[in-house]
Amino acid sequence: MPVVYPMVFYNGPKPYKYSTDLFDLFEEDKDLALKIFWKPFDLIDLTQIPDEKFKDHLMFGVAAKVMKHIYDKDFLLFLKILIQELRRVEYTDKERYICAIFSYILAASEVSIEAFTETVRAGLVDPSGEKIMTLAEQFRQEGVKTVAKNLIKKGRPLEEIAQVTNLSKRELKKLRNT
Question: What is this structure's pTM?
Fold first, then answer.
């Protein structure tokens, strides 16, 4: 890893009068921060922990298993198994947690949005209202906009891009100007 050299450029109206010791920001926890930062990091190697070990810890277990399997060749198969546990989370009224897990899955895995949406709709009792489906749609729109930006960079005509992406010429002009 490259060495990170902490440096602050200050341009306030008065001379800088505060500590330049990063650990002073921890105030009463400074000693704890020093102890933690200057020792080797703790490693939790998810690849060495059997999935069954996570069953006793619902919230942590779901997150850990998703992180463990996110790069599986057939993540969709794993998601279908995970849905059972997500149903248990669903009954705890943790909609934001489920949305965070789904956001991570959509961002990090290779699963298609359509297959993901179908699996979630089929598996959850109430797929956390429309928020989860809205999340999937947001990712879809981000993907469409990314494709449009790439085509704009390649100099493709806006009419052609509009046909491919179903974006309006006005939206494409905004993308071109950003």
Answer: 0.59
